[in-house]
Amino acid sequence: MRTEACIAGDRPILRVRALRKIYPSRGLFRDDRDVTAVDGVSLVLSRGRTLALVGESGCGKSTLARCVVRLEEFNSGEIRFQGADLLALRGEELRRARRRIQLIFQEPLEALNPRFSALDVVIEPLIISRDVGRREAIDRAQRVMELVGLPAARGSRLVQEFSGGQKQRLALARALITDPAVLIFDEALSGLDLSVQAQMVNLLLDLQATSKLAYLFISHDLRLVQALADEVAVMKDGVIVESGTVTDVFRNPQHGYTQKLFSTIPRKGIASLSEMAIKN
């Protein structure tokens, strides 16, 4: 049983070592204590592979994701992206690295302004970065919208006019337009119905096959993990208690917490999602 999540294969594109994130006590009550949200987590991710991070709500999964993209600073540890120390990067170097690591949230409206048109929310990262002119940004946005299954002709529609699944595709298009190497999904498919989840799984697998994208897939939905991931790491109280290939961990979980967590899996649900992902 390993407690460091690692995917073998190509040279690692993302490496996290001994990451710790502590939220200090606010001191309102005498028994208030600091909260260690992430406690010495290490993981390695290679191009073209998917590592799933699972665990109950509050175990530190989302905090880890925010630390990796530097939305939150961490107390100790190291994050290396393409060999570079993310903590040491400043200015333009940090901005370039952030464009190559994209975080997609469970609620797409955390990243999408509902009053913007679909085209405007997709091109916004390029306009902000000033890497390209508006005409080129629009052309690129139209291509990436088509790539995620949204006709470019719908680009003039407001975000609020799209369905939940379509909004999540827009969020994916917005992330892809910066040409990322790593996508981090923080419960990004959990709120979708089964058929839309299956469509998104197919889409993500196709994108990974053609572009060698690396995915860190954070989810409490073990059906999705089995359908999408190569390896799984189980997190409890800020610590990875077990990791391995999806096949090995699902068939023979070793840690008591993993066994308890996996005992709740609806077997029919897993089968139906896997079958739909193949059929759709």
Written description of the protein model:
With 280 residues, this protein is α/β, with parallel strands linked by helices. It folds into 2 domains: 5-82 and 183-279, Rossmann fold (3-Layer(aba) Sandwich); 109-180, no CATH class. Helix content is 39%, strand content 24%. A 6-stranded mixed β-sheet has the order 7-8-9-4-10-11, sandwiched between helices. Strands 1-3-2-5-6 form a 5-stranded mixed β-sheet. The longest helix is centred in the C-terminal third of the chain and has 18 residues, at 194-211. The chain starts with a strand and ends with a helix.
Sheet with most strands: strand arrangement? 7-8-9-4-10-11
Q: Supply the number of helical segments.
A: 10
**CATH topology tier name of the largest domain:** Rossmann fold
The named CATH superfamily of the largest domain:
P-loop containing nucleotide triphosphate hydrolases
Structural class: alpha/beta
Secondary-structure arrangement, i.e. CATH architecture of the largest domain: 3-Layer(aba) Sandwich
The ordered string of helix (H) and strand (E) elements is EEEEHEEHEHHHEHEHEEHHH
What's the number of structural domains?
A: 2
Number of strands: 11
Q: Strand percentage, roughly?
A: 15-25%
Low-confidence stretches: none
Q: Roughly how many Å is the radius of gyration? A: 19 Å
